Amino acid sequence: MAKQHKLQNVAPFYIDEDKPFIKPTDSNAPIAGLTKLKFRNTHIYYALTWYALALLLAGLTGYATYLERKRKSV
């Protein structure tokens, strides 16, 4: 469409209809409902990553505190 209307700097996107608006009279007309988008649910990995980072930070803070107390006691 952008080329036909001589438009520039147009964002790339798709328009998909889920059901026909009107009955197509042309055999080359788009067929509704063919685009299937399925996103993986990876929220558990996202949560595990942040919990692991929090545990790592807590562990490193504890270790740094231990080393500091050990250094002061000597």
Explain what this protein looks like in three dimensions.
- The structure is a single chain.
- The protein has a domain at 43-74.
- 42% of the residues lie in helices and 0% in strands.
- It is mainly α.
- The chain has one helix spanning 43-73.
Write a short abstract of this structure.
The protein is mainly alpha-helical and 74 residues long. The protein is 42% helix and 0% strand.
Structural class: mainly alpha
The gyration radius over C-alpha positions equals: 29 Å
Q: Overall 3D geometry? A: elongated
Gap between N and C termini, in Å? 76 Å
Task: Give me the number of helical elements.
Answer: 1
Question: In terms of topology, how is this protein built?
Answer:
Blueprint: H1 43-73
Task: List descriptors.
1 helix; elongated; 42% helix; 74 residues; mainly alpha
